[in-house]
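#struct-pred

JT: dropping the chains for the assembly here, can someone run the whole complex?
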Amino acid sequence: MERTGPFKGRTIAVVNDLSLDEQHYLYAKARELKTLAKSGGDTSAFKINDRDYQAYLIFMEDSTRTRESFRNAAKFLGCRTNVFDSATSSFNKNESITDAIKMLYGYSADSCFILRTKLEGVCRWLQTALASYAETSGRPKPGFINAGDGKHEHPTQEFLDEYSFLEQLGWDESNIHIALSGDLYHGRTVHSKADGLRIFRNVKVDLVAPELLSMPPYYMQKMVDNGFEVTAYESLDEYLASGKVAPIWYFTRLQLERMGESVLEKAPSLRKSVTFRKDMLGLVPEGARFYHPLPRDRVNPTNPTFLDSLPLNGWDAQSENGYWTRIIEIGMLSGLLGHDFEGEFARQEELSENFIQETTPAEHRKPEYKVGIKPVEEGIVIDHIAVGKPIEEIWSSIEAVRKILKLNVRSSHGVYHSLRGEGEYKGIISLPDIISFGEKDLKKLAAIAPGCTLNLIRNSSVARKYRLSMPPRIYGFGEISCKNENCISHPSHSEGVVTEFVHKTGSTFICKYCEREHPYRDIWDI
Ligand code: NCD
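RK: done, full complex below.
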C-alpha cells in the first residue's frame, strides 16, 4: 500500500489532536491487528516495510515501557528505527532541541519523531517549526508523537488506556464509571483522561487524591466542560466508605521526580491515603479491574503486589496494549493506514480575528476629552480602560498600556467616574500627538485593556470610535511570555519559540504549547 493516507505527517501532541472518529479508528485498527496477530493471521497489511521511513525515538526522560513498546512497534512496522541517546548527544553541548531535530530530519526521506521530554509543549512547537522547514526544503512534513511531556500530557498512554477499558467493557462505549487515584496533580496520564474518556458517551469520574496531589483546576474544568460527572475524594478510605465505588480503577504512583521540596517531604503520608490495603478488598465491586500506567514503586506501590495474582489485575494486559496501539499510531502518521477512514478529521478551531468593532460616537456639543485642562483638538483618546474594575487595577492597566505601547509622548491620563453608575470608575489616556495606531499596537491594546474604546478626535470631537475586545490569539510580541518554567516557550530555554496564547474564557489565555492557563495580565512581562 502506498503511504499516502490522510494522517501522514500529522502530530499527536495532545489527545485532541485526534478527533473522536480518528480515535475510534485507532482502536478499531489496533483491535483488528491484535486479533489477527494472536490468531496467527497475516498482518502484512500493517507493515510499512520501507527503510526510507525512519522512526526516531528521543527519550530525554526515563522510560522503559513507552520507549520499548514504540521501539518494538517500529521494528514490527519494518521502518528504520533509531533510538537517539540524549545522554551522549549535543544536548549536553547546549544544542537546542529544534536544531537537533532538524539535523535528524535531514537523514531520511520521510520520518516520524517520538519524543519524551521534561519540557512541556515540545511536539506542538516542533510541529510548527519543522512544517515551515519542510516546506522550504520541499520534503514531506515529519510526524511528531508526544511520549510524555513533563506534567502536561501523555496521549499515547491515554490511547492504550482507553483501548484497555474498551476491551474490558466488551467494546461498549455507552458508559464508563472510573476512579482515578494517586498523584493527579503531577501525573500526566490522568490529565490526558480529561479528553481521552470522551470516547464514552456517559462518563463518571471519581477523583481520589489528597489536596496536595489533587487534579489541577484546568483539567477538572475540562472534565466538567466535557460533560463528565466528577466527584472528588481525599483518600481511598473516604472513597470506599461512600459506597459508590467504580468497577474500573486507575492507580498512579507518586511522581516524586516532579515534586517540589515541600510536597516531597510529605510524600509518605500522602501516599498512604492512596495506597490499596488487603482489608479494602471486600469493598470493591465484583468483577472490578485495576489499571496502572506503570511503573509502580517497588518499595511503596499504590497497587501492592498481593493484587498481582487476583482477577483485579488489569495492568499487565494493559501494558501489552501499548504495543498494538503504538504500531497503529506510527502506521497512521506514516500514511500507511487511513485509506479506509470514513469519519470526521480533527479540526483546527477557527478563531475569529474580529476584536475591533466600530461604534457610533455619541453626539456632544462640548469638546469631550482634555489634556490636562486643554481640550484634545486632534489625536487619540483611549477611554473605558478597565471600566468597572477596582481603582488600583485601573491605575495598573493605565500603566501597562503606557509601558507596553511605549507612549512616551505629550499626554495625560487619569481615573474618572464612569457613566455606568455610582462607584464605577474607568481609565482614560489622552494622546494629542498621535493620530493613528498600527494594527499590532491595536492588538496589543486590546490584549492589555480589553473593553476599552479608541476615539479618533478631529476638530475637538469624536470622529470615529472603536471598541476593542479580547483578541482570540496573542502572539509574536516581545513583551509576552509563558510563565510555566517547564514550557518549551519559556525564555529560559532559549529555543527561539514564538510565544503564543489562545483566548480561553473570560479573561484567561492558555499557552499554545504547554496549555498552562494565564490570567490575561500575567502573559505580559511588566
Ligand atoms: C507514565 C509516565 O511516564 O507518565 N508511565 C508510562 O508512560 N508508562 C506514568 C509514570 O511514570 O508514573
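JT: nice. The two ends are 55 Å apart (CA to CA). The pocket of N-carbamoyl-L-aspartate is lined by residues 65-66, 148, 154, 157, 188-189, 252-253, 293-294 (CB under 6 Å).
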